[in-house]
Amino acid sequence: MGDDRSLEFDACRSAWTEALELTNGLPAKVPDRAEVDRLAGCLRGHVAALAGELGATLEAQSADTSERETARWLLVRTHRTLNEGPDLDHRAAAVHLEDLALNCRALIALCHQQVCAQL
């Protein structure tokens, strides 16, 4: 589990880092739409998988902690971002990509906490 998990986190980290670098110039500079769409597709898969994993972990926990409340808030925000999808407008699509990247980064942090707590 450790090596596979590290590779998965590394792939996610690489995707959100690339996305945040691409959207760094917003709002003044709107990135290329094809690149935004490519990264958004990659991040959507990572974000959906991480959200599912975190949701399942939360369901299995019995204690109601502040970390659990934070995770629930993040899951609601993440599901809203996934359901909204990218806009037709290039700038809005880039903002959506940025939201996916930030959600991915936060999900990785919470999933990593859960993995470390189980060790």
Automatic annotation (TrEMBL):
InterPro entries: DUF6415 (IPR046300). It comes from Streptomyces cylindrosporus. This is DUF6415 family natural product biosynthesis protein. It comes from the Bacteria. It holds the Pfam family DUF6415.
